[in-house]
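new request in #modeling-help
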Amino acid sequence: MQLAAHNLAFGYHNHPVGSGVDLAVDTGDVLCLLGPNGSGKTTLFKTLLGLLPRQGGRIELDGQDLSRLSRATVARRLSYVPQAHDAVFPYAVRDMVMMGRSVHRGLFAGPTAQDRAFAEAALDELGIGALAGRDYKRLSGGQRQLVLIARALAQDTPLVVMDEPTASLDFGNQLLVLEQVELLAAKGLGVVLSTHNPDHAFRCASRVLLLKDGHMLASGTPHAALSEQALSTVYDVAVRVEQLPSGQRVCVAREA
Amino acid sequence: MDKGTTARSPARLSAPAALTLLGSFVALGAVGAAMVGPYPIDLSQLLDALSGRAGSSPDPIIETVLFSVRLPRIAAALLVGAALAGAGTVYQGLFRNPLVSPDILGVSTGAGLGAATGIFLSLPVLAIQGLAFAAGLATVALVYLVATTVRGHEPTLVLVLSGVVLGALAGACISLLKILADPYDQLPAITFWLLGSLASVRVDDVLSAAPAVIIGLVPLVLLRWRMNLMSLGDEEAAALGIEPRRLRLLFIAAATLMTASVVAIAGVIGWVGLVMPHIARLLVGPNFHRLLPTAMLMGAGYLLLVDTLARTMTETETPLGILTAFVGAPVFLWLLASGRRGW
């Protein structure tokens, strides 16, 4: 299963956001999107998910034109983890996760015992099984993010798109979410995620894409694409990429 | 993961328990409502009349009071209350806003305009009801049409704003009719209709509204799980595999049908559709397949109670809209003040 975009232009009607984006994610890959605020990451994601019509180019899901697939077909191949949000209604965590199952059931069906088991397994997998009966609205941001990831797991798709899953999380929760991303890839899922932290890309990405003002600045392996020069250009600040004794790479500000 | 947050979900009744409990309350209430009134009927008389309708020799006055006045009125109160609360539950979920009521898209004001026009033209009751029903549906259709023509904004917001604007326009037309209407005959009728009443409801009214309510209810029951997804917003719903635009149209049509058909027989009755879904959500949580039947039962029970008060409290009938507001407003304020974070 592959999600691929060729020479993609994206944005809103009368308001182009970006163009010329090429990318491909296979199952088992982690594609990490980096770019400053306003660079078009979220718009690109919504376009890749088919939530916004593309403005040019092509998007292919499993070799088929995305715009010709039904919402249900897309949702069986590609799940979406939005940024942890505040729900309007206080759904129980279990119910929230079970909503990921609805695409596998008939339009008039309700959740089955199997769906419930699926949801609980997804919660257990993320180590938050104990939250199943709790009220989603009363969870912390980190817990909510994990619940939304669990919902994507319950949706049981080969590919997952995560919009800044580490945004607004504390340090510990950021690492927890990254760990889950690595585990998903190890399970054979393809993950596309965006982040504001180059260290996250160094840690979990197999490929990265640098986006600035809607255009690709660089793409490739983290090692090749996340050069000091590219990162400095993307964020308009001087940065240094250092290698720790463990071999892990980190990005830090360059002292004046 | 951070622990120790007091994030336990509030104690909620299990759905079967809540429904059984509410169902028994409503049934008891219906029996009570059948007994009280200007002509009191005691339990044995009631049972005699109900069971031995064909048998023995029941009191003819009891027969008349019960079968042509009270029972139709009780049935109407249950139907109207259930329909309004059900529609309110749908709209609140659909618009992701707990402050939304069944008349958000102008169905009640539209129906009010239809009825006022009918009264102004001195049409027969049946025609007034028909006009109210048609105008209610037409207003929502117009609102939907306007909202789909206006593009480039958040669709839900545009829909609600169009509803507000067209509702205000219909309200202005009603005011104009009130000024033009005959102040001794038509004006009181229009005013009374706009405040809602079951005083003149007949068996035929119940029988004409019930099928429309049931037709509206069918898609809501069938698509109960998808309704939960809709309450997450369009993008998430679409990413979870449903077509939000299509489903929203269907849900709006269903809830509007339910509202318009009961408004046509009972007039404009506020607060039931706003407050009942809230209390139901407190009882059984927001999951639509539990919430819908709970809210509908509560709406039925509430309107039965209010209507029974309306006809027994004073010599003259009190319009329902006044009573539902007197009870509903404090309850709603209490809900706000009790500071619940979850709706």
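bot summary: Chain A touches chain B through 48 residues (CB under 8 Å).
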